[in-house]
TrEMBL record:
GO terms for cellular component: plasma membrane. Pfam families: LysE (PF01810). The lineage of its organism: Bacteria, Pseudomonadati, Bacteroidota, Flavobacteriia, Flavobacteriales. The chain crosses the membrane at residues 6-25, 37-61, 67-87, 113-135, 141-165, 177-196. GO terms for biological process: cysteine export across plasma membrane. GO terms for molecular function: amino acid transmembrane transporter activity. Its main location: membrane. Keywords: Cell membrane, Membrane, Transmembrane, Transmembrane helix. It is found in: Cell membrane. It is a multi-pass membrane protein. This is Lysine transporter LysE.
Amino acid sequence: MWFSFFIYSVLTALLPGPNNILALNSSMKLGYQKSKTLLFGIYSGFTVVMLLTAFFTEFLLNSYGFFLNYLKYVGAGYLIYLAWSVISGKPSEIDFKQDEPLSSSAGNFWKGFLLQLVNIKIIIYGITAFSSFIFPQFKQLWVILIFAFILSFIGNSATWIWAVAGEKLHKFLNRHYKVVNIIMGILLLYCAVSLFL
């Protein structure tokens, strides 16, 4: 079960999404050092969203406990959808020259922070992790908070990897996208099946 949790959280975090693309874009245009304020905003917002999804999912399951069985199917469906979209996906072509450079440090922070509040990818990431892997095993508040920070750490680490790797990661994924997509898709399918084992 925990192996599946680890695969799910790491692979989902590493998949291209708003955070990873924004971090990649910013570090390629401005460099990693000048992108730190934006990245700190992303990290802070991500952590807040993980805490909110933990409490939302706990409330939902405590008030409507029967949802846990249904959420397992929703989580599995989401993982199958992710696997299919990864396997059938093509490399993204991003024009890193079009956007104007990000302006003020405060603007960069809030741009990264506020993106998290509307980032469906990480909201579903958190709800699926809590409802499918964590709440079936644990109920204590302190354990749930630890997992919120673990999920935040994994997600933010993936964004950091995209920011640091910059153009090299983008080129590597584009060059080897078929093999990478198939491996990641199969691992996500394994995570979906493991929810019922």
